[in-house]
Design brief:
Layout lengths: L2 E6 L4 H10 L5 E8 L8 H4 L10 H4 L4 E2 L12 E4 L3 H13 L3 E4 L15 H4 L6 H8 L4 E4 L3 H17 L1 E10 L11 H4 L3 E2 L5 H12 L2 E3 L2 E3 L4 E9 L5 E9 L5 H10 L15 E3 L8 H4 L8 E8 L5 E7 L3 H19 L1
Parallel strand pairs: 1-2, 1-4, 2-3, 4-5, 5-6, 7-11, 13-14
Antiparallel strand pairs: 7-12, 8-11, 9-10, 12-15, 14-15
The protein binds adenosine-2'-5'-diphosphate.
The site of adenosine-2'-5'-diphosphate has 16 residues, from α1.
Length: 348
């Protein structure tokens, strides 16, 4: 029997990706679509300005959107909710759903850095989910909140994890070139971004710098011990629709050659044997001198693989490379769904 799930913020850009990934999911049955009072009562096809490159799934089109109310009867039999809410709303609503006994898999930043909330990329720190026992006990919830990181952080930590495990990390510098879809349909005006680049994304650098260290750190005695390397991020918005590119410079603790980095990244496949439906090989290496590119590579592994290329020696740091992520799949909805699949496999 499938597990009944709902999506909060279902009409928004990440919400639509959730709908795409969950409509025909082998273990989840998408039962509830929630959004604002403006959309509640309308059929999904009328409430939502659908901007994906596939049609609205047939079985979803006529579902009636409900308000984001944890006590609404539509949620009665739902065990899991996926949250694509804007962060200020997530801060209020996600707790209410956890209190009502739902496991909330959140893509929002609202609770990511709280000391009893796991911030998880399952290939990197799945064990951090164990903190939810403390979260439930402390907050008196039957449910829980499990978060996934900011889109740019996911790309970065997946590539750093195999390097850290084998060679140690001393310092990392990341420059991002981020797609406009990360800001939502109305996020970046076309007049601002066409023929242009915007060298500022609010709070993005701070998120990358703190979230990465929580994820790559340890969970010891029910406390997060942050990783101790230095990370500096510089974030830019570029005129790409989907696909964040990151130029990553790494200084390792042990001396390392580019071929060794390539080898550990290529072998990195920690959840291979779990057969999770949304899982794809986390890192795919491209050998061509001019890859990865957003348009050509973002759908690798159905948008779940990070594509890495141009692994080479650096004159100042040890190595540098280019990584690409489908930001609304691997970097958002797909990340939450993978967390939920892992959770079901390990803890349900
Ligand atoms: P709605 O379409 O009804 O406004 P995005 O980040 O792409 O802008 O999407 C935001 C999502 O959050 C949408 O699904 C939107 O629904 C939903 N939302 C916005 N305001 C509220 C609110 N006050 N309560 C619940 N959901 C909201």
């Amino acid at each position: 029997m499938k597990i009944k799930v709902g999506v909060l913020g279902a009409t928004g850009s990440v919400g639509q990706r959730f709908v795409q990934l969950l409509a025909e999911h082998p273990i989840f049955e998408l039962e509830v679509l929630a959004a604002s009072e403006r959309s509640a009562g309308k059929k999904y096809k009328d409430a939502c300005y659908w901007t994906q490159d596939t049609d609205i799934p047939e079985k979803i089109k006529d579902m009636v959107v409900v308000p984001t109310d944890a006590k609404h009867e539509a949620f009665k039999d739902v065990d899991i909710v996926f949250s694509a809410l804007p962060s200020d709303l997530a801060k209020i609503y996600e707790k209410e759903f956890a209190k009502e006994g739902k496991i909330v898999f959140s893509n929002a930043s609202a609770h990511r850095m709280e000391e009893d909330v796991p911030l998880v990329v399952p290939e990197v720190n799945a064990n951090h989910m164990e903190i939810i026992d403390i979260q439930r006990e402390k907050r008196g919830w039957d449910g829980a909140i499990i978060t996934n990181p900011n889109c740019s952080t996911i790309c970065c930590v997946i590539t750093l994890k195999p390097i850290m495990d084998k060679f140690g990390l001393d310092s990392v510098i990341v420059t991002t070139l981020q797609a406009v879809s990360g800001a939502g349909w109305n996020g970046v005006p076309s007049m601002a971004i066409l023929d242009n680049l915007i060298p500022y994304i609010k709070n993005e650098e701070e998120k990358m710098q703190t979230e990465s260290l929580k994820i790559l750190g340890d969970l010891e005695d029910n406390k997060f011990k942050f990783a101790d390397f230095k990370l500096s991020a510089s974030c830019n918005r570029v005129a790409v629709i989907d696909g964040h590119t990151e130029c990553i410079f790494v200084k390792t603790k042990e001396k390392v050659e580019p071929d060794e980095i390539k080898e550990v990244m290529d072998k990195f496949d920690p959840l291979k044997d779990l057969n999770l439906p949304t899982y794809a090989k986390p890192i795919v290496i491209r050998e061509e001198v001019d890859r990865p590119q957003p348009r050509l590579d973002r759908n690798t592994g159905k948008g779940m693989s990070i594509v890495v290329g141009r692994i080479r020696k650096d004159n100042i740091f040890d190595v540098k490379y280019v990584a690409l992520e489908h930001n609304t799949i691997r970097g958002a909805a797909g990340a939450s769904v993978l967390n939920a699949e892992y959770f079901i496999k390990k803890y349900w």
